[in-house]
């Protein structure tokens, strides 16, 4: 739990844009999050001073508040639990991150004392009219088990520290020492290093798949959960994780580097096997399109006046388009593009 929050805070503190330190990060966050919910529209239009406060509060929640995890006073731990749980509720309510926010909040249970757990369980049993089950007291663990647990914890902490130093400390001498060690344990995937939202994206660029039956008239195909039709209300889909919708957000940020293989495969399926990818899209796909292309739009939330006038949640303008590809041809990928391309 400490790793999750503290390493995320370190990554934000080290942002090359310094956007968390100067308070500007949250000015853009709600509009540019991968899959925002409808509530994000309202949060985006909060005053700028509030966004600055949110940015600095996030640093405090992730860098300072986790110290409360180790405090011996029950009330301090409960206060830490309450604040961090509220933090995750806001995260889950304003953007779709699959099951991440729910798993993060589940860790907060370990801040409760046994008596707190018994109190909650008793309350639930009374409300649900469940009969309490009597269990025999668990004997203390054997000395060898306690020592084995301590040894495993020591290894976990050492590997976590090594991985964190590799990720966050910029030192050639340190890298020369730690990288050989990291190569030993990396294949086993024993630990994760958290560097969530090191800096906030300032622009929202969305790819849109279009097909044509004659090469002149183009029809857009909206994904189920991405920002597509500006009039469509952003939905709330978590804890489900729409992987393709989520990944295409990253593609929009770096589309000039070439087309990833999964996007090329998606276009090929759209051309030749539309039934195989139909579940990703909102409307029926054409059975035999002649051509396909990707159009890139920059999206912004509408303001209150624009939404009242048009009912739209988004406004957008086209910024680029890929070369039209015949559905009988192979869609070029970043692997087939040369550096000069």
Task: Give a topology summary.
Elements: H1 2-13, H2 25-32, H3 38-44, H4 48-64, H5 74-94, H6 100-106, H7 114-128, H8 143-168, H9 172-185, E1 204-212, E2 218-221, H10 243-253, H11 261-272, H12 274-277, E3 291-301, H13 304-310, E4 314-321, E5 325-326
Antiparallel strand pairs: 1-2, 1-3, 3-4, 3-5
Helix pairs in contact: 1-4, 2-3, 5-6, 8-9
Question: Top keywords for this entry?
Answer:
341 residues; alpha+beta; five-stranded antiparallel beta sheet; 13 helices; 5 strands
Secondary structure category: alpha+beta
User: What are the low-pLDDT stretches, counting only 5+ consecutive residues below 50?
Assistant: 335-341
Rounded Rg: 25 Å
Helix content: 40-55%
- Give the SSE string: HHHHHHHHHEEHHHEHEE
Mean pLDDT: 91
* Estimated share of beta-strand residues: 5-15%
State the total count of DSSP E strands: 5
Count of folded domains: 2
Number of helical elements: 13
Gross morphology: globular
Largest sheet: 5 strands, antiparallel
N-to-C span = 45 Å
């Amino acid at each position: 739990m400490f790793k999750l929050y503290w390493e995320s805070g370190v990554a934000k503190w080290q942002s090359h844009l310094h956007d968390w330190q100067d308070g500007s990060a949250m000015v853009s966050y709600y509009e540019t999050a991968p899959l925002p919910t409808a509530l994000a529209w309202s949060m985006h239009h909060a005053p700028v001073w509030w966004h600055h406060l949110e940015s600095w509060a996030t640093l405090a929640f992730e860098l300072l508040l986790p110290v409360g995890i180790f405090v011996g006073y029950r009330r301090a731990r409960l206060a830490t639990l309450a604040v961090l749980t509220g933090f995750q509720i806001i995260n889950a309510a304003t953007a779709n991150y699959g099951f991440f926010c729910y798993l993060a909040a589940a860790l907060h249970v370990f801040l409760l004392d046994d008596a707190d757990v018994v109190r909650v369980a008793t309350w639930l049993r009374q409300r649900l009219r469940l009969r309490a089950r009597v269990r025999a007291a668990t004997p203390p663990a054997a000395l060898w088990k306690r020592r084995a647990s301590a040894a495993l914890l020591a290894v976990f902490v050492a590997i976590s520290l090594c991985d964190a130093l590799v990720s966050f400390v910029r030192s050639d001498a340190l890298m020369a020492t730690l990288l050989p060690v990291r190569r030993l344990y990396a294949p086993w995937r024993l630990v994760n290093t958290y560097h969530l939202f090191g800096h906030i994206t300032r622009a929202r660029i969305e790819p849109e798949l279009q097909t044509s039956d004659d090469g002149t008239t183009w029809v857009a195909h909206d994904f189920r959960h991405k920002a597509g039709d500006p009039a469509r209300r952003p939905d709330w889909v978590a804890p489900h994780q729409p992987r393709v919708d989520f990944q295409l957000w990253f593609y929009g940020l770096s589309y000039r580097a070439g087309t990833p293989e999964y996007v090329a495969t998606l276009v090929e399926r759209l051309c030749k096997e539309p039934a195989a990818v139909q579940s990703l899209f909102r409307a029926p796909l054409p059975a035999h399109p002649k051509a396909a292309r990707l159009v890139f739009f920059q999206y912004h939330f509408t303001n209150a006046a624009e939404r009242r006038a048009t009912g739209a949640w988004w406004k957008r303008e086209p910024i680029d388009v890929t070369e039209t590809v015949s559905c009988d041809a192979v869609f070029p990928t970043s692997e087939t593009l040369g550096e000069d391309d």
